[in-house]
Amino acid sequence: MIQSMTGYGKAVVNYNGKKIHVEIKSLNSKQLDLSTRIPQLYREKEMEIRQLIGECLTRGKVEFCLYIESEDATEAHPVNTKLMQNYYEQLKGFAEDNHFEGVDWIRTLVRMPDVMTKTEVEVLAEDEWLMVRQGVQEAIGHLVDFRTQEGAALEKKFGEKLDNIERLMHDIEPYEKARVEKIRQRIVDGLKQLTEVEYDQNRLEQELIYYIEKLDISEEKQRLTNHLKYFRETMTDQAGQGKKLGFIAQEMGREINTTGSKSNQAEMQNIVVMMKDELEQIKEQVLNVL
């Protein structure tokens, strides 16, 4: 079963009056692109957190956020006024040099790093980290479950699009058979109008056969059928087949394009356009497959 690269997971850990929130979300990317936002208290565990994420998520643009919410609403974090003054002096000079006006300094300064944090150094207790680590694993698990659900929806959509392409391919057959006689008759009628030109009937038949063989799309249809089958089989493989499905979709596009270039009949070309539209929707969604 395929997995989507889009997902979201969250977990909450309660420890000694603190609520520790763990959130992780992912979008599509060619490789694992991981960014983290972690409080200073847990910075020493960042590499371990990255390792936990990397073991479960191989691709995707992943954003990891860990933040602390105090359960004691009466406890106010002290303001680091010295750091706040330092920020103000630097930013005020920059604002004056660049003619920035109407700056809300209080709102700006309180959002600067470490202004609204405790100044004393906290030490991460081992039992606290074990609980947070479990929360990280839980959030990753929820994200994987989300990806699996999204993958099931993608698989269903892919199946519908593949069915549509297969149906359209069969819709070509009546026009394909009828056009052979139309091509032959059009050439013969054209030659009849050239009364002063003599031609060898046998040679004409040979040239007609050669010309019609050039327009034959039997091989393209057979290869497209094989690609459709291979795409379905690949979807049932283990997770991580997104790139492979993308390559198969490209091969399907080649066969459809070749069919279009050989279709010298309006009805066939219209069907090819519809096939291209179905395939384009597959290509767009394949980008989200893990």
Would you summarize the structure shown here?
The protein has about 290 residues and is of the alpha+beta class. It has helices at about 45-55, 80-95, 105-110, 125-170, 175-195, 200-215, 220-235, 240-260, 265-285, and strands at about 5-15, 20-25, 30-35, 60-70.
Protein model, in words:
- The longest helix has 46 residues, at 126-171.
- It is elongated, with a radius of gyration of 32 Å.
- It has 290 residues and is α+β, with helices and mostly antiparallel strands.
- The termini are close together.
- The chain has helices at 46-56, 81-97, 105-110, 126-171, 173-193, 201-214, 218-235, 242-262, 266-286, and strands spanning 7-15, 18-27, 32-37, 60-70.
- It contains nine helices and four strands; from the N terminus they run E-E-E-H-E-H-H-H-H-H-H-H-H.
- 22% of the residues are buried.
- The model has no long low-confidence stretch (mean pLDDT 85).
- Strands 1-2-4-3 form a four-stranded mixed sheet.
Strand content range? 5-15%
Task: List the secondary-structure elements in sequence, H or E.
Answer: EEEHEHHHHHHHH
Q: State the major sheet.
A: 4 strands, mixed
Round the mean pLDDT to the nearest integer and report it: 85
Order of strands, main sheet, comes to 1-2-4-3
Q: In total, how many beta strands?
A: 4
N- to C-terminal distance: 11 Å
